Amino acid sequence: MWFDECDGFVELCRGSLPYYLLIVLPIFIIIAPANPVAASHEFPAFRMNQYDLHGVPHGCRSASISLEARSVSGWSTSRHCVVARALDLTPDSFQAIKKKAGSLIVVLPEDLSSLNDEQKEHIMALEVAMMTVPETTIPVYFSKWNPELEVILQDVGNSFITDDKAGSATEALFNSITASGYQVVVPSAQPAVKPDVKISTLHGKLTGSGSEDKLPTIAIVAHYDSHGATSELAFGAESNASGVSMLLELARLFSVVYSVGKSRPHHNLVFIVTGAGKLNYLGSKKWLEDQLDGLEGSVIQDASYVLCLDSVSASDKLYVHVSKPPKDFSAGGLLVKEIKTVANNLNHPPVEGIHKKINLADESLAWEHERYSIRRLPAATISSLRSHDDPIRKTILDVYSDDKIDKLYKHTTIVAEALARHMYNVSYSQIFSEPLSVSKDSLTMWMKYLTSQPRSASLINDKHSLVNTIKESMQKYLGEVKITNHIPDKREPEVVFYDTTKATINVYSVKPAVFDLILTIAILVYLGFIYLVVYNFSKFYNFATKISSGKSKSS
Amino acid sequence: MTLFHFGNCVALVYVPYHLTYKYSGLSEYGAFWKCVQAGGIYIFVQLIKMLALATFFPTADSEGAKLGFDFIGELLKSSMDIADLIGIYLVLNSIPGKGHAKVLTAGIGWASAEVVLTRFLLLWVGARGAEFDWKYIQKSLESNISLVQHITTATLVWLWSRHDLKQRFVPVVTSLLFITVYRPLIAEMLITSFMIGPWSALFIKAIHAAVLGSVTLHIYSALAHSIGIF
């Protein structure tokens, strides 16, 4: 009996079923689009920073992924894409992934601002590990947290339990069959060199009363770009939106002072907003070369002091970083002394001077003033950070928060007051008081504006709205505002940027190949059952007839 | 790999239809073109239904979505499915002869037309993707259930049209026909009100089709026996 049925089944396959399908299906396959369905999960993601500085490659060198997703503990070969929370990654595990895994997707914490200090340090340490040379050859992406991603993270974490954790062999087998896997696909080309790189540096001037050329000049410098493990998320509130905000506020205050003939000091003030500060202060370097080596006279030629502002709202303390301690009665010495006195008068923690010699052997300079000191201009950097190594200066965690404003306000007041006292050569308190005083609103406005967009040097060129906005407001306060664009040398560029800073990650949920085979077997069994039912339907029918006829007889 | 999955789904949809066609003896009658004709009438009836729905219930969708379950509107919409019964009646009339073949041809033709029009594109677009989803297997199983349902419906319509049906069966057949018409509505109500998962919904549908089918079979066999079809 069984053989007969099998015969019938074979007959069926031999019948009309396969022949036309053999023709029709391939035709369909040929005319159908390659991938008819969109992924059920799509996330925007930001590729890790990639740039060459002085010919040394930094960051992540590739962009496209098409690999199976695994957890940070579950991956084993270069065919796996590690999907991990930023807090689950350590610098060590990153190094291992960098060497042997196929790619990495870092999921950032849900709320960056509510992290505790330990978590922040953890992520910053990870970022430092990521950005240190040598370059990363695998694609690394950052994605913001979202609930769908959380589900994927959990699934990836639960499945592929390594053998020691699985209960029994059958359980492990069952797991490997039913586990839902994820295929991560990022379709993008190899990152290409960005063609139109321009590093814009802006400067403007307030001219003192008297013969312009003979007056001493004080320069205020701040760089506007930011830096982080991924360029698209580098909002750089502390470094260096705070410095630029302070500079623009100083410009506003002093423009008022300079506009009244009587109160116009016998000093020139130059404000410089530099680009590519995070890349070895390239903007300052090129601007100085332009100014000092050019044929025309320079606005900074005989600067009596250059004051750089960098990360001025991180802590309550202020530090004055110098590469050579200023002589007591030089302009610099007096200015620094004035800053200390003002801080003292305003009941502020004492301002500490920190002396660090320029180390040209280092890959990049520590503070921006070193660029000026190298060109024999007396310079110092004012910062609320003790060390230039502080990871807060180069992190994606550096986002706007309201408590920065208070510190920024205090520090701006100190610097403005000290500058004014130095220029007027007076030593009594409160030159800037109502109605002419540091405005919290204006500082907040600038902080919010600057941190509303990623400001990585690679994202900003001379046409960027940020450069235009800074230029317009400088023109409002200052005279002779100019933008100097530096275009890297064609043959030996100091800096090279790459595109593909962001991409879309597609995540497909997939089943292992074994699963499809098992499914086929199940379907075959089911179809066999249907076959039996249909084949023996006459028996059911006869049975039904018997019952009904029996009933009709009895009734 | 994904094509393999598509193959799985298609096999699941197609093979039961083929088996029914082959082993119910229809192939011996050469009823293939009759089935196609039934499919043609199916398409025609669906077009008329769509026109009617679009004309008389144009905005029900957007309003109903907010109010949750708009019972009266849905009931009226489901009433349009009576057109299906009329369509099946037409099919039955257009098929000469009597006996099992007539009912089966109408049922299979109707069901195949539905499967080809509603399932194939879905499977082609969905099941071939890299993404795996149980929904395609579920849809395939559901089409098997609908085969049983459509044959049942065709039988019921045939029974209803017979004058020699015993009087005591008439209310039963009529009420079964009503249940068939409002089946999608009842199913949807159950699913939304009891939050039934897709697998249990499928299971309930299968049980429902089986029960309805066996009752119909019971009535049919009695009549067929009495008028001498074997």
Automatic annotation (TrEMBL), chain A:
<protein>
    <recommendedName>
        <fullName>BOS complex subunit NCLN</fullName>
    </recommendedName>
</protein>
<feature type="transmembrane region" description="Helical">
    <location>
        <begin position="17"/>
        <end position="38"/>
    </location>
</feature>
<feature type="transmembrane region" description="Helical">
    <location>
        <begin position="513"/>
        <end position="534"/>
    </location>
</feature>
<keyword id="KW-0732">Signal</keyword>
<dbReference type="InterPro" id="IPR007484">
    <property type="entry name" value="Peptidase_M28"/>
</dbReference>
<dbReference type="Pfam" id="PF04389">
    <property type="entry name" value="Peptidase_M28"/>
</dbReference>
<feature type="domain" description="Peptidase M28">
    <location>
        <begin position="204"/>
        <end position="347"/>
    </location>
</feature>
<keyword id="KW-0812">Transmembrane</keyword>
<dbReference type="InterPro" id="IPR016574">
    <property type="entry name" value="Nicalin"/>
</dbReference>
<keyword id="KW-0472">Membrane</keyword>
<keyword id="KW-1133">Transmembrane helix</keyword>
<keyword id="KW-0256">Endoplasmic reticulum</keyword>
<comment type="similarity">
    <text>Belongs to the nicastrin family.</text>
</comment>
<dbReference type="GO" id="GO:0005789">
    <property type="term" value="C:endoplasmic reticulum membrane"/>
</dbReference>
<keyword id="KW-0325">Glycoprotein</keyword>
UniProtKB/TrEMBL annotation, chain B:
<keyword id="KW-1003">Cell membrane</keyword>
<dbReference type="GO" id="GO:0005886">
    <property type="term" value="C:plasma membrane"/>
</dbReference>
<feature type="transmembrane region" description="Helical">
    <location>
        <begin position="202"/>
        <end position="223"/>
    </location>
</feature>
<protein>
    <recommendedName>
        <fullName>BOS complex subunit TMEM147</fullName>
    </recommendedName>
</protein>
<keyword id="KW-0256">Endoplasmic reticulum</keyword>
<dbReference type="InterPro" id="IPR019164">
    <property type="entry name" value="TMEM147"/>
</dbReference>
<feature type="transmembrane region" description="Helical">
    <location>
        <begin position="173"/>
        <end position="196"/>
    </location>
</feature>
<keyword id="KW-0812">Transmembrane</keyword>
<dbReference type="GO" id="GO:0005789">
    <property type="term" value="C:endoplasmic reticulum membrane"/>
</dbReference>
<keyword id="KW-1133">Transmembrane helix</keyword>
<dbReference type="Pfam" id="PF09767">
    <property type="entry name" value="DUF2053"/>
</dbReference>
<keyword id="KW-0472">Membrane</keyword>
<comment type="similarity">
    <text>Belongs to the TMEM147 family.</text>
</comment>
<feature type="transmembrane region" description="Helical">
    <location>
        <begin position="103"/>
        <end position="125"/>
    </location>
</feature>
